User: Fold these one by one.
Assistant:
Number 1:
Amino acid sequence: MSAPKGNALIGQSGGPTHVINQSLVGVVETALACPAIGKVYGALHGFKGVLEENLIDLGAESRETLEAVAQVPGAALRSVRKKPTVEECERAFAVLKRHDVRYFFYIGGNDSAETAHILSEMAAREKHELVLYHVPKTIDNDLRATDFCPGYPSAARYVSLCFLGDNVDVRSLPGIKINVVMGRNAGWLTAASALARQHPDDGPHLVYLPETAFDPEEFVASVDAVNKRLGRCIVAVSEGIHDAAGKLFADSKETDSHGNVQLSGSGALGDKLASLLKARLGEKLRVRADTFGYAQRSYFGAASAVDSGVAREVGRVAARLAASGAAPTGTISIRRESGSPYRANYVRSELSAVAKVTRPMEAELLSGVHDVSPAFLDYLRPLVGELPRAARLSDIAVPKR
Amino acid sequence: MSAPKGNALIGQSGGPTHVINQSLVGVVETALACPAIGKVYGALHGFKGVLEENLIDLGAESRETLEAVAQVPGAALRSVRKKPTVEECERAFAVLKRHDVRYFFYIGGNDSAETAHILSEMAAREKHELVLYHVPKTIDNDLRATDFCPGYPSAARYVSLCFLGDNVDVRSLPGIKINVVMGRNAGWLTAASALARQHPDDGPHLVYLPETAFDPEEFVASVDAVNKRLGRCIVAVSEGIHDAAGKLFADSKETDSHGNVQLSGSGALGDKLASLLKARLGEKLRVRADTFGYAQRSYFGAASAVDSGVAREVGRVAARLAASGAAPTGTISIRRESGSPYRANYVRSELSAVAKVTRPMEAELLSGVHDVSPAFLDYLRPLVGELPRAARLSDIAVPKR
């Protein structure tokens, strides 16, 4: 196929990340330089903005604004959680046609790839020539066919820094500390807590992930054992922990239009685990539970350098591939070439390679029922970058008199 | 009085901060240079370490270790929450005498100042010459007789950065967002959220502090009004909000030995407020509640430059004043000389000026029942330092076709 001539439209979808605007600017700057592409538009609130014809002219933004926006977390085009119906896809196509849009870039996770897939099938049926690229992002790191998902390393960096802080905090005032980390189906982000271990007695001492069935009895016994050994225990828990039958430990009635249960934005799971420990190990036990919340994906200042660079490049590659006429649809996969310094190359994959199905952590990245393996830490370290050193005093004891 | 000759002992007490080790190192480096002071010891876990004679030799630490430790959050000497009994004070004095300790520095908040006060009275009764200085720290900023409390500006910086992130996050995916911020009796830290306002529609749109009685009806009505106007609402809530009679909105059974109710380390308050909004404004409303947790005082990388510098200097001044023989007891007060750049001088105050009674925000720093005044922002800005810019796209609309 040859690249069609026409305008480009970009949308952002799903939960934002620290670096989702790097990808946006990567697409914009490259698309603006492509001869086949005329105007470069943005859809406000993703697919919703297409439906409602709420488009903005990204080509009219100054270079300075684009660069400043690239540094900012959150979706600069604003986002949406929406699975379009067939009727909505038809209305969206009418809008695309009216604005001569021939290139559509959707920056998002696996739900967004699914939306892009539905759109591309409709385009084929309607014989409307539309080049449709998914640009990957998600702090969950649960897309298949890529070394990592842009957004994940920065969220992992934030989580590591929080656990680094908790290590010194809980060493100061000992007790049991439970930290609930985002991650519904995959434990990647919770697992990043393990990067905070610098001293042999550092936490997280226990890491519970949705890849392994959660057994409350094992949890109580393991916390008790660590606490008896060290006088404290720091636990990393994924919000998506569930029993062997798949039933979530923390249940909620609220679901989005993709059928995902609301787990974030509530302290219920942490409080339930804390209550369990107190009931079983004693009401006087000092137990605290923090639920990390939205700062994991939006804290200003946690972006990893590798993540920022790769997110930008993924946007550029998507625009370049789209305008090359190589294939009418695709997503960008990151292939790691070296770990330190991190180097990658970028290839096109089919939308179906990332849509719908998520990628849990592989067995070799786990260790037992409550830890990660050294292989996982080797994988993660170059993505997150160097962490501050948690220096300690030497504790040279003064002899008792 | 003249300065006694003998050893110095340092302890850290209460909740740690980002810069509490700057003060520790400030005391150590200055005490080591004082001719009157022999050895410089640290007590592990504050008063508990004195009682149990768990002392370490801080003079044996390398300059490099001390400098590295100064940068790290958490109490490097480890901390304690303890109100000593008379019997414990007697045992502690026996330890001090055995180790020829003539200088005791207690780095802590108002509870710690109270402990220091009790110790000093006992020293006077026992006619044991003991120079006793309180070195102020608390993220709560609720000590009297000082411009600010070391630890507060860094915690305020972290809170501001979180709200900066929430502004872009909630603008991306609109809804109601409640953030619960630490602060039992005083709203200083919650109020710092207001620094995150860079655009006219930025949050926090409502700021609820313990200085004002919390009225659930007013809360529901105000959230509803903001949400109707902007399509979103970000609320900053202090964990210590209470009704006109002083009854906490979030109640807990756990108290420490100073009688403080446990409020942190639980998501209960945020979830209760979220449930209230859903019950009153509709179950379909997107409401999320985050409780910021211990990262507020221990996140690696949020330390403000002014805070770090002043915390160090407060430690140095305490050691200098103690060894000068000017007065046997005291605490260090910070007096602001200029805001931008921040400059301060340091004076001695009586322990009684900071012990027991806390300092709520003054009326002129508040505005109505759910906001702070411009005077508060003028006070806070130089302490927190420059914040990243939350750049936005210009949103140049494409005409509908």
Note: The mean pLDDT of chain A is 93.
Number 2:
Amino acid sequence: MLDKISYKEAFYRCIDNAKPTNLYKNIFVKDALREFLAEDILARRDAPVFSNSAMDGFGFKRSENKKLKVIKTIYAGDKYEDFEIKDDECVRIMTGAKVPDGIDTVIPIEKCVEVTDEYIVIPEIKKGANIRLKGEEIKKGEIIAKKGEEITPEMSALLISQGIVNVKVFIKPKIAILSTGNELKEPWEDADEEEIYNINSHSIKALLEKNGFSADLIGIIPDTLEKTVEFIKNLKNRYNVIVTTGGISFGDADFIYEAFLKNGLKPFFRGIMVKPGRPTMVGAIDDTFVFALPGNPLSSYLNAFALMIPTLRKLSGAKKYFYNFAYAKNKSGFKVNPKKDHTILGRFECGEWEVYKNYKYGSGMVSALSCSNSLVILGNKEIVKEGEMLKVIPFNIGFCQNCDFFND
Amino acid sequence: MLDKISYKEAFYRCIDNAKPTNLYKNIFVKDALREFLAEDILARRDAPVFSNSAMDGFGFKRSENKKLKVIKTIYAGDKYEDFEIKDDECVRIMTGAKVPDGIDTVIPIEKCVEVTDEYIVIPEIKKGANIRLKGEEIKKGEIIAKKGEEITPEMSALLISQGIVNVKVFIKPKIAILSTGNELKEPWEDADEEEIYNINSHSIKALLEKNGFSADLIGIIPDTLEKTVEFIKNLKNRYNVIVTTGGISFGDADFIYEAFLKNGLKPFFRGIMVKPGRPTMVGAIDDTFVFALPGNPLSSYLNAFALMIPTLRKLSGAKKYFYNFAYAKNKSGFKVNPKKDHTILGRFECGEWEVYKNYKYGSGMVSALSCSNSLVILGNKEIVKEGEMLKVIPFNIGFCQNCDFFND
């Protein structure tokens, strides 16, 4: 019989069994998007590296003098010898230009009372205004990014501003995707009216790639137990994660499960009380993680998304592997079977969420995925009311056809 | 003087001037993630392609008979000749297997009253139960994806299930990124204590790549007006979008603006009443879009994110180019200057949003970007109260260190 654990329990059994890798490699920052740092990154230099002007304006030493003689112009990038500046003098200075020693305040051109080529007249201004002080953002030696953080475009900008072009990142697991079902055709093959295309391998590979993982499509599992045992034996030494789809519920030719067992598989669970996606087995052969996902395209995709991706992140050394969620107002009420947990597709737009087709779609319906952009995971509920606030996990939150995203 | 338009006005001037391309190319679905469809996609086949069993169980023609003789077993992928089935007969049938003509109902094994190798005894069951009917999800010829939609992993699964391996997508604009500032060092170059790295080009390139665009880093703009005019003249024939950073406010050597004008630039605006990012110019030379972004790393990144990415999506034929947002409860109150609009960084986690460093960070601070995962665009406000609901645009919503995303 299949296990009857909750979806939450299944999630934690996956996560708790995932031991992060300790292998790392060196990589150029420009190629490192979506990788996870294998080291804390220390600042190599202060930021700003020197005190500089935040505006185009005039720099001076703040005093009682309000009429100041312009003695010099300093552009961004100018290098110059130290010079002395008197209380009744100032320099024209551009945004980003180094502020000379002795100057403590900058006034932007448009705030001056009078501006000529020779002198300016200034109003009262706070000492220190419009100067970005050396090191005020970052001090040399401080931690600017932590081990386990994901490299985003934003972090890569920070690393580059520090002249850091190379970082240590964790080596991600090698992933193999297998299919079951000799009846499946590959999408590039001819299929007659009664043949079905192999969707799962391809959609799971696309999901993995979107999440910064890559995977090899190994093909179809051999059709006898003996050959399958041998096949898995070879794979488990080459891959850190094996993903299969289909053939894991009872009634199907279930020698796949047996072949895993004969290779030393320790299952964490086999079966989840969830709709869709009940026939799912996750376990490990030594350090090799095995995800045996359901054969139904929707079920396998949802479990890959909700259970496998977080686990792969943890295996890859990521510090963050829980899905972030947004609260959204439920747009139209619907009913579910309270004896099961549910992973439910819908559209999240402008703070509202609407279930796909009133939750009347089957586990084979790939179109449900394509028409949705988010997931709600539900337990212990029979009725989800209109107007109720739900925790929504967006997978394609990105863009809308029309959305007033301004707070005004 | 710089224009004083609002951020919203700047956004709409960008969007309204962006004319979508009509150029398309053919591409393999597996390589088409993040591309925009240049055609409606019609279903090539019904889905399901044949009526099939949704469960492992027994199929029969529903009648008064409750004791049924098992005459045959049908596995997924089995092909067979039509055969007749009597009212007191049934077939063992597996999930996904084709349901024979004449059979209208399937009962799962576990719901049978009695199961032997020869016969089963069944309870009352609804006609049509557990059968997925041919075409119930998709009818051959119906539109399954629309022109202008973005190809996601989920859509690619749908296309593959239809045996569609090749699609027409819009050709995205060719983008050139230029820098200003002869003083800048590239991150791989040695820089002394007083030299600054060229962050902007690299961070904007990373932002573009994250959004499915690619760009060429052209390098630094020549240092005279004459050379710059010539340089831009050559570029505008090779690129559909030119992005510059820095050198667009007054006081700087502003020959870049002049060089664009001499090349026929029509500005949509020059200057936005926003903090940070005021010195920003957007316009076009014939069909070539020009984004002249500020020199401050944070300002240029934020305007690239909020103004340029949506515009590039529209230029690329995308149907959706407005940022989707999530409502979030503001975690700690802060003040802003009500005379300007503001693009404000913060962290969006588990339905709450917290401004970065109480909004006391400067426009040069790249660390603000790296430590944040979302943006709030604010207008006409002086105080943002604790507990207030804000529209938040996430740019790295992804994952949290710990987040209870289950609705239970």
Note: Chain A is about 20% helix and 30% strand.
Number 3:
Amino acid sequence: MGKENFVEQIADIEADFPRWYTDVVLKTELVDYGPVKGTMVIRPYGYAVWENIQAELDSRFKATGHKNAYFPLLIPMSYFTKEAEHVEGFAPEVAVVTRAGGEELAEPLAIRPTSETIIGTMYSRWLQSWRDLPIKINQWCNVMRWEKTTRPFLRTSEFLWQEGHTAHATEEEAMAETMQMLGVYKEFAENVLAIPVICGRKTEKEKFAGAVATFGMEAMMKDGKSLQAGTSHYLGQNFSKSFEIRYLDKDGSQKYAYTSSWGVSTRLIGALIMAHGDSRGLVLPPKVAPVQAVIIPIAAKKGGVVEKCLEVKAELEKMSVRVEFDSSDASPGWKFNEWEMKGVPVRIEIGPRDIENGKAAIFRRDTLVKEEYPLGGIGETVLSLLSAIQKDMLEAARKRRDGRIVCADDLDGINDGVEKGNFVKAGWCGCRECEDKVKAVTAATARVFAEGETAEKCAVCGKKAEHVVIFARAY
Amino acid sequence: MGKENFVEQIADIEADFPRWYTDVVLKTELVDYGPVKGTMVIRPYGYAVWENIQAELDSRFKATGHKNAYFPLLIPMSYFTKEAEHVEGFAPEVAVVTRAGGEELAEPLAIRPTSETIIGTMYSRWLQSWRDLPIKINQWCNVMRWEKTTRPFLRTSEFLWQEGHTAHATEEEAMAETMQMLGVYKEFAENVLAIPVICGRKTEKEKFAGAVATFGMEAMMKDGKSLQAGTSHYLGQNFSKSFEIRYLDKDGSQKYAYTSSWGVSTRLIGALIMAHGDSRGLVLPPKVAPVQAVIIPIAAKKGGVVEKCLEVKAELEKMSVRVEFDSSDASPGWKFNEWEMKGVPVRIEIGPRDIENGKAAIFRRDTLVKEEYPLGGIGETVLSLLSAIQKDMLEAARKRRDGRIVCADDLDGINDGVEKGNFVKAGWCGCRECEDKVKAVTAATARVFAEGETAEKCAVCGKKAEHVVIFARAY
């Protein structure tokens, strides 16, 4: 089976990006559809990516003083009504348990779409004195939001995520936490996922239901659309007042805490696919790739080839490289395609002639370049290649993105820009009417404010601009 | 606040074991009650124990060739009816989603009580040829079983667990997998949790709903009752026939796979508490203790004390010891009690006189013995103490348990044995009637078969014994 034949299995990335995405996630066995509409099964290859993401994030959360905990899945429906904006935002998407243990429940229970309400309830119980602050807890869990249109990783009725929830004595501290975690996400996205992100505040329309302010990080996908890859919310005293999160301060008075929440989800896997993938399939950054290097024997039946492959494998394992030796019956060409589709950063080819010459051919998935390297010290070579790939992937993604950020002065300009697959910066007066108009005309939404930038006029109404907004079509 | 005063907060372990348990789990902040009846919040201290359990088990699962994945929470109700025994066992405990996204669902969805049915459905889709076997997947997730009587960690409507699900070409392979994972659990229970366990096959009555055979591991708690700490099920072709888990074999014919499943849960935290705890509270084995050593300054305001404590802390951290320095305002006595209650394996006391003498007092939580050790090389000292504690806790638990296993020839003997807090070995004819009678008269159940042991007569009916059974009252 030739390469062309094989790659035909995946739709052309230029011609049909959505179809390419679906083909890639299914054929690389990252994911499968669950039996219930809108659900997904995260298969071992996809889950291994998630485990790597978890490990990297979890160590960052702990290094910034957070501890993990676990709160119940089921939340009394009445909790949602305590914060007016929150219930409006989430009630329509909630899945509800009405029967359990063979009986109808007195009060229906929601499967958590997010946990501010139940965690707030527990914090109000735990928080007594100023000495108990700050409370900095994160949880890794599943959540459920019943969506009409779903796509694996990007929008599914159930997904996995982490949600951090903190409570502080002052506004300043809570805001500092909100911004710190946004910074943690950005550093992680860039250094681990190799995805450059634009961070900034969201408009009132786009903010989290119940937040005072939401800060998001937006990543550009290869089709020029934006994907919201993580959010950090400053909740002020909205939830502490609704859930009585109070404490006795040093001065003897009862005060409401200031809270924050922040989260990223399995959506990040979708971001990885669409930020780096190409016509051959996935391109995974080494830090999250389940397999970082694959060894493929050429003329495996010739004496010494398998032995040398196993020797190289052992050397790489000793250096903690996640390595596979593909000893299956398939042809080398078939294997090349298969592992390229799966996005493995480095492929090592070893055949009788290579052994004779003391060399191996190493193929880089990101650049598609194959070069010969000495077999001696191949472990070090692979390590330095992996580190170069990690860095180069970020730079390549940054270049791609930076070449696709344009400015516009009017609605036509915004439309033209997003139509061509760009992020578009434009002035905005701050009124909801103009924001809605952009959406209606261009199908783009306000992603984040371009922090620190200014414009003269609103691109929609021509009045004085209050902000520069980055508009894009979004996932 | 003196020690006596403080310990009064916990009920007397000898006088009221259940109350002692509840006091300990709440006051050490392992857990709290959730707002919905029967649910629990696993607080950071408890969750840290779970994280340590997960890390130890997960590396064992991977070393035996398993990969993690994630399957959906919601299972169509109709799936449960496909395996007759399975539906009978689980349907009464299921929580059901009937409404989602503002609409009534056409088919009600169960929150997974266990995932054989949905994983079986996916395996039937993935499994094509003999080349795809074995499939060896594990998932870490939440499950829900609506229970009438609940207690934190031991029995809650929602709990966290792992469930391994494998499919094999032959009966032998599936049975070997079942036994291998039982062995992994036993080694883990003994070497990590320091809990000796008795492993063996369960009776028909006690087996998993839908299994051909269930193997369990039973641990003795300090009140002499047994806790089922893990199970491994050989499912034969029951689920593969119900869910069409078939493959094309080498000989060109379609065959049903043989499957297994195995799991342990947050119940293990309950086992830890009740296997090791004492009148002062928790006693945690070093390998899962969130804090392995606590440093407490004596006369902290005297020059050099805090500095020395921080120096020792840094030394221990360098050796990867999980260490806390308690610099709070509370008195040393109060801190002693607090950290003893929390079960921290080693306490290091450092005061001006200790520094002068170049020594520190180290208290072992398991033996309650305090001894002086040189400050020089204290890191090595703590490491070797932690390793000794780990080993000694297992041996102590083994001695306690072995002293409480008795034999009985008749129903009175069984009753007398369990009444005194023993495991009781007795002959059993194999009939359900006699098994039920033991339960009715003694409140004890058949835990596992005593493998390889024989008896003359059934202790209930006097007929020929087919098995020796270990009877105990159980959690």
Note: Chain B touches chain A through 55 residues (CB under 8 Å).
